[in-house]
Each structure stands twice: as C-alpha cells, then as structure tokens.
Amino acid sequence: MSQGQRESPSLQWSLATTPPGATILGRLIECVPNFSEGNDLSVIRQITDEIETVDGVKLLDVDPGKATNRTVVTFAGPPEEVVEAAERSVRKASELIDMSKHSGQHPRFGAADVCPLVPIAGVTMEETAEYARELARRLGEEVGLTVYCYENAASRPERRSLADVRAGEYEGLTEKLADPEWAPDFGPTEFNPRSGATAVGARDFLVAYNVNLNTTSTRRANAIAFDVREKGRMRRDGDPLTGEIVRDGAGDPEWVPGSLQSVKAIGWYIDEYGVAQISMNLTNISVTPVHVAFDECAERARDRGVRVTGSELVGLIPLQSMLDAGRYFLRKQRRSTGVSDSELIKIAIRSMGLHELSEFDPEKKIIEYVLADEAGSKLVDRSVREFVEETASESPAPGGGSVAAALGALGAALATMVANLSSHRRGWDDRWEEFSDWAEKGKACYDELLRLVDDDTDAFNAILDAVRLPGGSEEELTARAAAVMAATERAIEVPLRVMEVSLEAMETIRAMADIGQETSASDAGVAALCARSAVRGAYLNVRINTKDLSDQAAATDYLDRGAEIEERASDMENEILGLVDKRL
Q1: For residue 103, what are the contacts with CB-CB under 8 A and spacing of at least 6?
Q2: Residue 67 — pLDDT band, cuts 50, 70, 90?
Q3: pLDDT tops 60 at residue 13
Q4: DSSP state of 15
Q5: 3-class DSSP state for residue 439?
Q6: Would you say 312 and 209 are in contact if contact means Cβ atoms under 8 Å apart?
Q7: What dotted CATH number matches 207-370?
Q8: Residue 545: what pLDDT?
Q9: Residue 430, pLDDT above cutoff 80
Q10: Pick the CATH number of 379-583 from 1.20.120.680, 2.60.40.420, 3.40.50.300, 3.30.300.30
Q11: Which of 213, 235, 305, 379 might form a disulfide with 254, Cβ 3.0–4.6 angstroms?
C-alpha cells in the first residue's frame, strides 16, 4: 500500500448538490487496466492516447512503476464508452508490448495483464460483470487475445481469484493452456509469446484510506491495524504481542480475525507529518464503508490509550460513500439527514478529519465530480438571475416545461426546509427521525425535479435536431419521421414525470402543513402553490406535445394520465391550504 500524492487545493463550497458549475453524469464505471510496461513512456503514452480518443471517457491517472515494469491506468465514464476505451487501449498494448522480453517484480502473464471494471454510480455489480464479459468477448474474438474472466465476471468459482487465474504467470502459460481445465474463457488456446494472456474482471471499488493517530509509535499503530483488519493477528499464548505463537495440527499459525471484513491494514510512521497511521485498503466499501472503518479505528485506538485525530483519503472515492458517511454522522447526532449533498459531504469531511494533513477538495477527490460536465453547461448550475434571464431571452428553450420543473423543485425544497427545521425544534427531540424521513423524501423529489429542468430543455432541442435531419431520399424521410416521433414522445414523458414527482412532493408538503412547526405553516402553503403550479404547467406541455404525436392511442393515454395527476394535485392543494389556514 502506498500513500500517493497529497494535494492542498483551496476548498470551495457550492449551494448546489455538485461542485460549482458542474453536472453529474448518470451511469458510471471505472476501468483500472495494468499494462506490462513501466519504463518506456512513449509506449505508455500511445496506450493512454487510445483511451482519450473515446468521447465521454476521462483519463484519471497514469502510474508507471520502473521496478515492477508495469503501469496502472485509471479511467472512467459511461459503461459502453469505457468498454470501447478498454478495448482500444488493450489492443494497442498487445501491438506495442512484447512479453517475451518482459521482466519485472510484479506477477504478470500478459501485455495487458489485468483489466477490471468497477461500478461507480447507477450501475449494479451484476451489470458491470456483464460489461466485463462483453469486453472479454471482444478482446478474444475481435482482437485475438487469450482472455480469462475473474472475480464477479468469473465463469466458474475456481476462477474468481486473480491469483489462481494468473498462477504460473507468463512463463507457465504454455503448460496452463494445455490443460483443458484452464482453457481460456475467450480467444485462442494457443500460447502467444508476444501478448500472453489477459484477465478481465468486475470488482468492487477499492479505497486507500489512512487513519491518523496521536502517536509516533509504529508498534501501537500496527496493534490497532491488526485489531481491525480482516486477517487479524496470529494467536499467541499469554501476551498477544510477545507470547508463543499457537499452531494448528499441521504446524501452521492460528489466526484471530479482526473486526472489519474486506479490510487490509498495517501501521506505519509518516516522517513528513510526524504521526503514525493505520493504512488501510478497503476492498469492498459496500461491506465496510469508510465511516465504519474510521469509527472502528477510533474505538480500538481508545482501548489502547491512543486517539484518532483525523484521516486521509488516497486517490478518489465515489460520491455515494461520502453521502453515506455524512448521513451516518448526522444520525449519530440525531439530526435530520435530508440536507443537501454539499452539506452531507461537509459533515463527512469534518467528522472524519479529512482536512487534517491537507485540504480535501470534493471536486478533485470525488470521482463523479472529477467526471462532471464543464462549468455552465446546465441550467440548474446557473444563478437564479442567469436562469431567469436565459428564460427571458429570444431562445425558445428553456420554456414553460423547465420553469414548471423549477417550480416543483422549489415547492419540494420548501417542504424539506420545514421538515429539517421541525426535526431539531426544542421539545421535539424524540421526533427528529420522523421529520428526517420526511426531509429525505422531499430531497429526493427536488433532486429529481432539478434534473428534469434540463431534461425538458434537452427534449425540446432533440425535436429541433430531429427536424433538421436530412430528408432527400425516402429512407432519410422515414428515418427523420421516426426520430421526430421518438423526440416528441420524450418531450411528453419529461413533463409527465415533472407532474408525477411534483405530486409526490405534495405528500411531504401536506405532512409539513399538518405536523410541521406552526411558524413554518406559510412556507408549506407556498410549497403547495409551487407544486400545484408545476403540475398544471407541466400538463400544458403534455397537451401541446401530444398534438404532434402520430400514435393517437398513445396520445390519449398520455392525456388521461396527465388529467388524473392534475385532478389529484388540485384536490391535494385544497387540502393543504385548508390545513395551512387553520394554523395561520
């Protein structure tokens, strides 16, 4: 385990859920290929250049090692694009690297030695494994490489372990390929001395995480590391540090497991900062998240008379991990968790002391933020004045649909505010969790409605793009008509979703009008008016766009669904305003 680079950029906070001027991408996976070349930078650059030819993929890190003669590359983006970038880079590596001339200190059996895919956001592990198998198929059938699948993409249990798949390394490949039990999952069974073999897998996100201690003792840091790491420590008679090692019948040491699963850890001293650390690799953050590792280290350190003073994240971390940490520490305080993402991140950073050794900049440490769109590319990233002025401009978009979604988001946000204020009202301490749950529901609504602000404008622009498609031939006319209809359906579905989510937000608004603190009753009333206007405004967009839909049965269905939602929203508005009137 290595510490990596420590950066100390200035920290800026945004009121939005993303960094200033950034928009989070949707489905994301990461790829971390290891190439068997760590000395020739021109070769490495040619390989990474292939990755950067794929739109939507961002190259995050290139880490060559001279002694290992190996380079670890990290890139991320939408799944399909990442698979394409992986194929291009592995293809180039197989052309440039000759394994018959390779030597290095790290286990290896191929030019593109391993190529794991890692789910980041909006993608399950099962889906990631399927993408890994598709990549393996393409590398085997289209590039002509010998490919094994491992970990979650493994074709059978005995191939899950990378160590087992790579056993014998490059020098043992001829014998391995001659064994029918070790026939590759894809590609040729004949030994290729130039490219060797490649292992493609799907694994969990690995987080390198160090916890700082108020001691300079490596021995004490190691003791705490052994307490928490999954492997634990060797069992001893008497003193757990100096006693005689207890052995089993075969003469092997017995082990006492540590308290945290999927955690590797050691203790070390950092001369640069004059402190000892527990250095951990969290190999499955869904099993042991960073906040659980931090608190467990703090507790075990306290048992040994040592105090945790902060922590350090090496490399990148998924957004969800930071949000989960923020909610975890807020719950410990019995505070509402229905606050903005930026506030949750701030709580996580402060609670785990991630600023102690250097500034923790979310824009550079959270993987989704690193991959975010360029500044100013989305309406929701603009100031209120900029949004209003853009709406007032001669451009037809943003229009009523985006404004309706913004109104719905404001209504949901007001209800969330009332829930958050009520959750820590004096005398209501035993009700904090009740209001926190309502705040979470309101936050989920305004988060989605904010996304729909831009979705509506994008849907309108898609219609314009479809209309502009060439229409000279009959085939082109048919393709253009199909594109226009598909875009029109999208332009109906987006405002219909605005209606659905705004109606859902009214559940939280009604609850806050009924049980929220009385001094915020007027806020609940304004929220209801915003949400009701969002429903009515979005329905106007549904109605006008269904006029252009050629499928009349579908048009009728859209209109009926919208009419039902509008009627329910009208009834709920009257109910909410009645509750508000009683409390004013």
Answers
A1: 69
A2: confident
A3: no
A4: S
A5: helix
A6: yes
A7: 3.30.70.670
A8: 94
A9: yes
A10: 1.20.120.680
A11: 235
From CA 158, how far away is CA 149, in angstroms rounded? 11
Neighbouring CB atoms inside 10 A of 524's CB total: 28
Give which of 394, 370, 390, 369 is closest to 379, Cα–Cα. Answer: 390
- Which pLDDT does position 373 carry in this prediction? 56
Express each pLDDT in 93-134 by its tens digit. 999 999 999 988 788 999 999 999 999 988 999 999 999 999
Say how far apart CA 129 and CA 308 lie, in whole Å.
Answer: 38
Element (H, E) at 264: strand 263-270
Cα–Cα distance measured from residue 86 to residue 51, given in angstroms and rounded to the nearest whole number = 7
| Contact (Cβ atoms closer than 8 angstroms) between residue 322 and residue 348 | yes
Closest listed residue to residue 447, CA positions, set 329, 370, 339: 339
**Which residue carries 């998240």 as its tokens?**
289
The whole-angstrom separation of Cα 230 and Cα 280 is 11
Residue 424 identity (one-letter amino acid): H
Assess contact for 325 and 290: CB atoms under 8 A: yes
Active site residues: 106, 456
Q: DSSP string covering 141-210, please?
A: III--EEEEEETT-SSGGGS-HHHHTTTTGGGHHHHHHSGGG--SBS-SS--TTTBEEEEEE-PPPEEEE
DSSP 8-state symbol, 9: P
Do residues 534 and 473 touch, judged by C-beta distance below 8 A? no
Q: CA-based angle 144:150:152, to the nearest 5?
A: 125
Using an 8 Å Cβ cutoff, are 536 and 569 in contact? yes
The pLDDT-based confidence of 9 (bands split at 50, 70, 90) is very low
Q: Which residues, in sequence order, are bridge partners of residue 29? A: 77, 119
Q: Tens of pLDDT along 218-247?
A: 999 999 999 999 999 888 888 776 788 888
Which residue in the block uniquely carries the two structure tokens 């807020």?
A: 330
Instruction: Give me the amino acid identity at 13.
Output: W
- Predicted confidence (pLDDT) at residue 4 exceeds the cutoff of 50: no
H or E element, residue 559: helix 552-583
pLDDT in tens, 147-176: 999 999 999 999 999 889 999 999 999 999
pLDDT in tens, 463-512: 999 999 998 899 999 999 999 999 999 999 999 999 999 999 999 999 99
pLDDT grade, residue 368 (50/70/90)? confident
| Structure tokens belonging to residue 216 | 């300079």
| Tokens at 256, concatenated | 């006492």
**Mean model confidence pLDDT for the chain:** 91
Q: How far apart are CA 103 and CA 87, in angstroms?
A: 24
Residue type, 148: Y
Phi/psi region, residue 147 (left: phi>0; alpha: psi -120 to 50; beta: rest), is beta
Q: Which fold has domain 32-202?
A: Formiminotransferase-cyclodeaminase; Chain B, domain 1 (3.30.990)
Spatial separation of the C-alpha atoms in residues 234 and 426, rounded to whole Å = 51
Write down the domain spans for the chain. 32-202, 207-370, 379-583
